[in-house]
Every structure is written in structure tokens, then in C-alpha cells.
Amino acid sequence: MEDCKNAAGIEMDDLNPTFHFTWTGTRKSGKDEEYHSHDILEMAFVLSGTGRYRADDATFSIKEGDLLIFNPGVKHQALYCPEAEVHATEFFVGFSDVQFKGFPANYMPLPDGSLLLHTTGELRRKLVRICTSMQEEKAVYKQGRYFMMKAYLMQMILLVLREQCQPVERTKGRAFESVNKKYVVEQIISYFEEHYSEKISLDQIAENMYLSPFYISKIFKSETGDTPIRHLIDIRLEKAMELLEDGWPGSIQEVAAKVGYDDAYHFSKLFKKRYGMSPSQVRKNA
Question: pTM for the full model?
Fold first, then answer.
């Protein structure tokens, strides 16, 4: 990895995993899962409750906040735990095509060769947020769903690796970018294109990307010459123009709502400033 190393020598030049699946479930039945392994990587994050697992012929307990990593070929089995007050609810994600220096292909390292990482504090909160976002994305089947799931997966992998790493000291006089600015901007624009009709907050986008609103605004303007909000307004007004020119039958209020504005008067002011005519005039001309 470019920005961290640890005693185990975890390094990475590139990260481009193939996302396979997610599954969320609670072990409530009295039957143990089959003892099995996979030919891909699988991560399981315990969202709540407690339980037990068997892996490589060892048995151990799991609890809320635990992260399990099952590398290819590692036999594992979720065990029914009747004594649990709250049965474990787990979020699973399967993926492949990762390579870390000094490790076999598709091998995800943890300290001391363990397959269990106990998470707390900010790391746990971030993992919960990512798992929740992936569950929501899985449920809606919107355009670009695979790439959103892959983006969340990449964040999850990086958080786990960073937990094991010590930052590399910056070289004096050399710019150091921990985030690919172009990628961040592309993700924001893609989000605007898909969600322009919804309420969008720069603070919420910043939180989801684990960046500050100030930093997002700065890199967005440096890459596009415009602010994120101005770009969103342009997208909304262009979509409104398309509706009006195509003869969409809704009222101006409904046009405004369809592109993300509750206030038709504010929408009309922005529209006229952009195109030099009101939405009603465009409709009449069309």
C-alpha cells in the first residue's frame, strides 16, 4: 500500500477487486451450517449479537463488532448458539482479484495470521455504515449498482488494512495525495446524475466518502472549475429543460419537484437566470 506498512509488510500498488455477493442473516435455527470453504475471499462482519464459529478445526466465540476473514480454502462453519441472548446477525461480502505484496493472490492478511479482528470505536462505526450502505444499495437495483457495491467494498478492505498499518512519513517537499482526486470527483458527479431528484447534502456526501466538505469542494473546483452545488444545479436545470421541451404534462411545481426543488419560485428564478426565459415560456415555445 502506498500510504502504510506494518511489520507484516502489507503493501499494495493497486486495488481493483471483483465484487461477487453480499448476504445478511441471523443464525436462529438449531442446525449448524455445513463445514465448508470457498475459492474466493469472504468477509463477515457481526452487526449485532453473539455466536460461535468453527474454522480450521478450532472453535471460538464472536460478538458485535467482530470481523472474520475467510481466505480461499479456509474451512469454516457457523455454529448454532442456543445460549446466546441475542443471536448473531452477520453481514457477508464475497470478492476476489486482490493481491498484496508478499502474500498469495486473493489472500487478505490479518495480524498473526488470525482470521478474526475485534473492532471498536471509529473503525466499527465506519464498517457498520458501509455494511448498511451496501444493504441499501442491494435492495434498490439502481443503475451502476455493481460499481457502488465495489466502491463500498474497496473502502471496507482499505479500512481493515489501515487498521494494521503505520503511516509512512511524508517526504519533505513532495506532494502526497492520499485520495485520488479524479476518482472522488467522478463518484460525486455520478451520484448527482443518479440522485438529482432527491435532497442532496454536501455534508452527507462528505460523510459517506470519509472526507471533509471543505476538501470535497476544493478538489471538485480544482478538477471541474465549478463547485459541487453549482454543478448539481446545472444538472437539475438541464433535466428540467429536457422535461419541458419534451412536453412533459406536469405543472411547473411538479417539474421543480421532479428535479429536486420544493420551491417552484426558487426553481423558476434559477431556470430563468440560466436560460434567459422562464420554465413557462419554454413550455409555451415547445
Answer: 0.56
> How many beta carbons lie within 10 A of that of residue 128, not counting itself?
17
Q: Of 178, 53, 161, which Cα lies nearest the Cα of 103?
A: 161
pLDDT of residue 178: 42
- Give the Cα separation of 199 and 5 in Å (integer): 40
Distance of CA 104 to the CA centre of its chain: 26
Q: In the prediction, which pLDDT does 93 show? A: 96
